[in-house]
Design brief:
- The protein is built from 6 helices and 3 strands.
- It is an alpha+beta fold.
- A 3-stranded antiparallel sheet has the order 1-2-3, with no helix packed on it.
- Strand 2 and strand 3 form a beta hairpin.
- It is globular, with a radius of gyration of 14 Å.
- The termini are far apart.
- The N terminus is likely disordered.
Amino acid sequence: SSGINAEYGEEFIMGCGSSQIAAGANGAISNFPNIQSTHSLVAKHVTQEIWDKLHEHVTATSGFTLAKAIACAVEFDNQHCGIYAGDWDSYKDFAAVFDPIIQEYHGISADAKHTS
């Protein structure tokens, strides 16, 4: 869940636990997050460059942000992947993060094709 801190005009995103992450009006965190799960795939693949490119983006379907997607890796120090898609747009909109994490987790190459 989230709430608005009217005094500072910030939205607080409730992460996977109880701590709060300060966010701007669109739910985006401007500063590079302190990823507690330092050995997670999020820590490996969410770089400053990618963060700077994607942190202000909000998905059309449910208003999901990269900060919300990686909240568990930011809050907890025991995550392996540390990322969750909030809607189907997350996979497309944050592909620069999701694609390499999914590929590494499943041991597939970037050019792999799914067959049925």
